Amino acid sequence: DDDMFSNAFCENSNKLIDVRLFALAAKDSSLSSLGVCTPLEEMLEALRGENQGITGIKTDEFMNNKKSHEVQVMSELVDNIASYCGIKQVIDIGSGKGYLSSFLSMQYNLQVYGIDSSNINTNGAHERNRKLKKHWKAYQRRGRANIKSQSLEKANNRPIESEIKCKATKEKPLNSLQSQDQETIQDLVPSCRFTETVTSETNKRTEADLAAQTQSDESKLSEEVLAILNVLPADAVELFSSSQCNCEELCEEEKVQRKMDSLKAKAGSSGESNLYLPLTSCITAETELNDIITDLEDCVMVGLHTCGDLAANTLRIFTAKPEIKAVCSVGCCYHLLSEQFENQEEYAEEVWGFPMCQYLKDKGWCCGRNARMSACLALERVAVGQMLPTESLFYRAVLQVIIEENYGVTKSDRHVGKIFSKSSSFIDYVRKSLKKLELDGSKLSDSCIMDYYEKYKHRMNELEAFNMLKVVLAPCIEVLILLDRLCYLKEQDSIAWSGLVKLFDPVKSPRCYAVIALKEHSCF
To answer: Which of 199, 201, 375, 439 could form a disulfide with 477 if both were Cys (CB 3.0 to 4.6 A apart)?
Structure first.
């Protein structure tokens, strides 16, 4: 692969001379070609054992197609992880408006805490649940049938002992989940061996116990369905927000006050099960989760498209907190990752988004913002005809030349944003951009602006070709970021199994890979 990539460039000038070799080398370095991913179906089969998944509410009834696809697939996997670990509590990091959280609670009867640092998002989650409440009757009918079927199936078909194996295609299996493997990057084969045996308590359970449990489950069916599928009446959704940034360690007074507020809210509730609670908080690996979640128990931590450093911090929180037995994290917004070696200054105590693993830290590895921006591009979408916005990219490139040559600005903390769609012409685009960047637009006449446009417009095709090469390279950069996170988990002693799983259709959802891990005591 290295030879193929090298041969794509001229040895003397280092210019690209063979686009085909470049594309083939990039493809060979993508996750789909490296064979380091665990197939989703094999993962689900290993988690389920002889149990079958349940069918229920269709998410496309209250979500767009992309979000529906993501929530449907991820919620099924999370439920299976929770069931395998014997867990009923889920913490959704960066929960936003609560799409995943509400579905996990509604469809799978899991107790979900959705944590987001934005009060706006938390309030949005509350409002969304209020609207979903209008549809509860239809959900109730479907949910009653699903839960009754699921309850009877658990009573009649609970496996006493089962051994499930899954092997990755064309790769050798890893060690048992009971021991932590120490592979290098080329050994990060996603094969897994789940061995499930019941605990001593389960071994003591008799058929009479199971029958009694079944009867009890059926007697509670109506109120369980109501609690789940009423999609949370307003008084069942508790909103917690901190007056100060929770990234700082809470003082004792704040801890006591937060617990008192939580207890009062619970005491004043309607008596229904509070299955989904949106919380406003900013948490790190140092945060005491008991200060935020008063009834914290063993749980699964999840994150659906956690932005930038939040994806890396989710894994750090998972490894630091003994209560968190498993994690399923899908990251996004690679361009917002902080990098330890991007700048020359050293910040020894800073927590960085990249690199995470010791292997890349020892090498001082740095991607840079341009590479991270490229990693966000969607090759699969381009491949099916969803082309890049060439004209808007051209506008942005010429604008940068204008700003550098006329204002001497080469770097700014301000962003132009989505001005192209609001602009009627290139002149209008430049005027609005200069205003947003707080630069004096009177220095440039309209004719001067158009001169820049005319000077560079013949290079638009060149810019398009360059961006297409960036698209081809995007999966290779994403591989580096994802394998860094996986290697970090492999370095932790408490992790029984970790791997990468392709969850989503990349055309519908380009950031489609989940980092998944289970701790040793999660495997029984």
So the answer is: 375
